[in-house]
Amino acid sequence: MYANIYVDNKVASKEDFPSIFFTTNNSDSKIFLKQPKQIKNITVTDRGTGGSTLNIGANVNIIRHLHVNFHTNCKVNIGDNCTIGALEILLDTPNTIINIGNDCVIGHGVSVRSGDGHTIYDISSKLIINNPNKEIVIGNHVWIGRQVSILKNAEIPSNTIIGMGSVVTKKFVTENCIIAGIPAKVVKEGVNWDMKPTYMYKDGYYRE
Fold it and tell me: Could you identify which of 52, 79, 88, 131 might form a hypothetical disulfide with 67, taking C-beta atoms 3.0 to 4.6 angstroms apart as the criterion?
């Protein structure tokens, strides 16, 4: 049995999830799966002192891989009905939460990082100037393109699109927009997106 992996709050068996790899020295760090759809190639490393959890919602489809690197007492929440191409999450500060909402599509080569890994300080005052917040938030129904980097203090509102190759470094509040660039900024408002490809709308107009 996998003492650290649970499906619908029941301990999972190795045979059910042969491609989940969980490296930890702490029995209190756990993975919770809810009605898994296509769960494969998950690698979780806990390099802290425990107390961390990865919660994956119902009907989540992982196409290539999900890598999570925990520090102490961290939490990653992935909502229902998400599709993940290839995602790396690095929590390099303790007591950090990363929330990914429902109905999100995350492309290949996407990274989410809760801190910088090294300290930057002011020479005169010695004040540390790159302290991270304790939470990164990605809303519901967010489409994140390939090779996007989401860094400390980032918040992405619901019903938004993040352009390919963008670097998100701050909190955004406007829903229904396109965010793109390095650093990322709002480039278009009043939009939404749909999973269907454009050719399925014959006359060029979206219909539910």
Answer: 88
